[in-house]
Amino acid sequence: MRVDIQSLGTYNRLAQEGAEHAAASLTGMTGIETYVDVTNVTLMSKRDVEDVFGGTEFVGVQIGLGGGLSGETALAFDRDSAASIVDVLVPGASAGDDDEFDDMARSGINEIGNIMMGGFVDGWADYLSTSVDMTPPTYVERDGTDVLPEGALDRAEEEHVFVFESQMTAVDEEIDAYIYMLPEYGAFAEMLEASDDHDDAIPMDKLTVFDEMTRQGAERAAENVSSMTGIETDVDVSRLSFVPIEDVPNTARDEVYVGTVMEFKGTPGGYLAILFDEPSARTIVDATVPMELDEPLGDMGESAIQEMGNIMTSGFIDGWANVLQTSIDHTPPELVHDLGTAILSPIAGRLGQSQEYAFLMDSTVVTPEGEFNCEIYAIPDEQKLKEALDALLVERSDQLEANRESLF
C-alpha cells in the first residue's frame, strides 16, 4: 500500500489543532496557561511502543472512538502533573499524598479528560463530515505501556500501529500532558491510501523496513561508542515519526548539546545529527583523550567529540547502505555546540525549501545506569527517501524478506 503524504500531513494538522483545543480547555478549567509543544504521528512496532513509554507512571483517562473515526485515545499526565491539576480543579481532594488518588480526585481527572478529549476529537468530525462517537472516560493510573488502551500492544506485535502523540506543557509550572490516539489500523490506512498514479506517495511496508534499518544503524553507532571508549551502551529508543518540517527543532530537548551534523547524499539524501548532552560529551572526552585536560570541552575535547561523531556516522549509515545495496556519501561531520533547537533549525530550514513535512528518525543511545545520553536524528530528504523506498519495492521485491531478516 502507498501512503499519500499530503493526507498524512492533513491528519497530523488535525491532531495538532485538536491538541490546541484540548490545551485551551485545560487552561480554561484550571487557569494554568498551557501550550502544545509538538505533535507527531509515528508508525510503531511493539518494541517501539515499549521503548517510548518505558516505566513512567501515568495518571489519566482512556476513551474509545467509533463512527467516522474508530480507535482509542488516552490522555495521560505524569503523576506530579496530575496532582498539581487536581489541587487546582478539586480543592480538598487527595492528590496522591498517600500514593493514591481519592474518588474526588479521580472524578476531577475524568471530567477534565472528557472535556479535553472532546475538543481533540471535534476537528476530526468536522473534517470527515461525520459524527465521532466517544465512550465515557475510563480513569487509569498505570505504569508505562499499561496506560494505553487494552490490546494496543497486541496489535503492534501483529502489525505496526499508528500513534498520534501530542505533548502539552504549562508555561509557568512543571506540568506536562500527553494525548495519544491510536486509530484502527485498517480503516486509517484506507484513509491514507494513494491512487496508483499518485506521485506524492510512500510505500507503507517499506517504511516499516526503514524503521528497522534506523534501529540497526543506531545499534551499530552504539557499538562503535563502546569499542572506542569501553563504555557499555545500548539503544533506548528508536522510532520513525512524521512531523511538519517547522516542528523538527522542537523534537530536541531544551538543553545544550555537543556533537556533529553531516549531510548525506545520493539515495537517500538528507542530514544526520549526533548530539551528546554536555555531561556525556565530557565522559566521551575523558574516555578517549589520554591526558587530563584543563577544559574537557576545549579544542582537544571538541576534536575528540568530532572524531566520535565521525565514527558513529559511519556505523549508522552502513545499515542503510547494506539494505539499499548502494553507497551513501556524506560530507565531513561539522562540530556543533548549542541548544538542540538551534542545531536542528538550520536543517529544517534547508529541507523546508522543498518539503512541508519530514520523516524524522530519532534514536537515543544510553548506558545501563543512565549517566550517558546521545541523541541521533536522521532527517532524510523526502523525495530522495521516496526514491530509495521505490527502488527497494520495484527492484528488490523478491529480496524483501531477506532484507528484513538481515536487520535482526
UniProtKB/TrEMBL annotation:
Gene3D superfamilies: CheC-like. Keywords: Chemotaxis, Hydrolase. It comes from the Archaea. GO terms for molecular function: hydrolase activity. Residues 104-139, 300-336 form the CheC-like protein domain. InterPro entries: CheC, CheC-like_sf, CheZ_family_phosphatases. GO terms for biological process: chemotaxis. Coiled coil: none annotated. PANTHER family: PROTEIN PHOSPHATASE CHEZ. This is Chemotaxis protein CheA. It comes from Haloplanus rubicundus.
